């Protein structure tokens, strides 16, 4: 049996199936686009021209500026996340709904370094994308206010860097803004959660997408990238019962971490569980926990897609 028949939806296997254009998601997505505002996009164009000079007289498209000062072109300009505005004064973060902050940190890794360059790489690749998603019918630029705060100053010490990260995340949370953190090795999960939890009156839920459990107490006698959720679930308002881990499996799951997960009663879904229960398995699992959770923090490891 082909991959197409094994993994495609059953409706794909129906021979001679007909459809009406007006019933397609693509049809409704096109209609939804017409309802989206364009105000902030137009403001950005005007700002780019005001700050970066009008284009040369030979340029027919007068929305183009002389110096690149906005989203376009995708291969040029200063790479903030999705070309969102860089906010130098972090005290003004309360003017935004979402703040992007990078954590260039990899001294918590036990094998391959290099994730300290992760925030740079994510910003660079994000420049290829627009803020509009056709299927979802959303335009992030128009519907939420996003800024890029730059990077946390991490230093050559794990615990002191943890303190820096916690202070940065806590500052953003205290201003009523949602932080999105670009790592960085997975050791940063603990200080990030610590910064979130101290600003939440109720309990915090953790959704962790990875192939590794990351729940052992120490690795190489330190709190490394294999340990964040052991320490995060020691925080009083982030108990182990509120940790849901999705995709755990394979040949790189330390038994020490599995033992902790079993003893503490965390919830683990393997990829077999996700295939059996559906792609929304983690969401369903979260749903019946909502009474116990006030806020949710999601963590995605780069190994979530590995074998």
Task: Provide a descriptive summary of the structure in words.
With 307 residues, the protein is α/β, with parallel strands linked by helices. The protein has a domain at 202-307: 3-Layer(aba) Sandwich (Arginase, Chain A), CATH 3.40.800.10. Helix content is 31%, strand content 13%. It contains eleven helices and nine strands. The strands form three sheets. Strands 8-7-6-9 form a four-stranded parallel beta sheet, with helices on both faces. Helix 8 (228-232) links the parallel strand 6 and strand 7 (243-246). Belongs to the arginase family. InterPro entries: Ureohydrolase, Ureohydrolase_dom_sf.
Helices, strands, pairings?
Blueprint lengths: L2 H5 L17 H9 L5 H14 L45 E6 L14 H9 L5 E2 L4 E2 H4 L2 E6 L6 H17 L3 E6 L5 H9 L6 E6 L18 H5 L10 E4 L8 H10 L2 E3 L1 H7 L3 H7 L7 E6 L7
Parallel strand pairs: 1-4, 1-5, 6-7, 6-9, 7-8
Antiparallel strand pairs: 2-3
Helix pairs in contact: 6-7
Question: What are the salient characteristics of this protein?
Answer:
Ureohydrolase, alpha/beta, metal-binding, Arginase, Chain A, disordered N terminus, agmatinase activity, metal ion binding, four-stranded parallel beta sheet, Agmatinase
Low-confidence stretches: 1-8
CATH level 4 superfamily of the domain at 202-307:
Ureohydrolase domain
Radius of gyration: 22 Å
End-to-end distance: 23 Å
Within the CATH hierarchy, at the fold level, what is the topology of the domain at 202-307? Arginase, Chain A
Number of strands: 9
Please provide the ordered H/E string of secondary-structure elements: HHHEHEEHEHEHEHEHEHHE
Total DSSP helices: 11
CATH architectural designation of the domain at 202-307: 3-Layer(aba) Sandwich
Bin the strand percentage: 5-15%
Query: What is the CATH class designation of the domain at 202-307?
Result: Alpha Beta
């Amino acid at each position: 049996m082909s991959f197409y028949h094994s993994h495609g939806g059953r409706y794909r296997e129906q021979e001679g199936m007909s459809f009406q254009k007006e019933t397609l998601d693509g049809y409704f997505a096109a209609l939804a686009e017409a309802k989206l505002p364009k105000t902030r996009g137009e403001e950005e164009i005007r700002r780019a021209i005001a700050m970066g000079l009008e284009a040369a007289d030979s340029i027919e498209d007068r929305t183009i500026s002389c110096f690149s000062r906005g989203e376009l072109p995708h291969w040029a300009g200063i790479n903030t996340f999705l070309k969102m505005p860089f906010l130098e004064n972090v005290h003004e973060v309360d003017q935004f709904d979402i703040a992007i902050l990078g954590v260039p940190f990899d001294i918590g890794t036990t094998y391959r370094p290099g994730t300290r360059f992760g925030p740079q790489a994510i910003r660079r690749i994000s420049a290829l994308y627009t803020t509009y998603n056709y299927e979802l019918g959303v335009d992030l630029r128009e519907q939420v206010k996003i800024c890029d705060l730059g990077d946390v100053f991490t230093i050559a010490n794990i615990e002191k860097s943890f303190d820096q990260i916690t202070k940065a995340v806590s500052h953003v949370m205290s201003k009523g803004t949602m932080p999105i953190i670009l790592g960085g090795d997975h050791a940063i999960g603990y200080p990030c959660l610590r910064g979130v939890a101290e600003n939440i009156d109720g309990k915090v839920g953790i959704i962790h997408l990875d192939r590794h459990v990351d729940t052992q107490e120490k690795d190489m006698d330190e709190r490394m990238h294999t340990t964040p959720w052991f320490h995060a679930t020691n925080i009083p308002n982030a108990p182990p019962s509120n940790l849901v881990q999705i995709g755990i499996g394979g040949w790189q799951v330390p038994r020490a971490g599995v033992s902790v997960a079993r003893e503490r009663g965390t919830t683990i879904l393997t990829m077999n569980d996700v295939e059996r229960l559906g792609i929304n398995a983690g969401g369903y699992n979260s749903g019946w926990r909502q009474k116990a959770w006030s806020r949710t923090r999601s963590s995605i490891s780069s190994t979530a897609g590995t074998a």
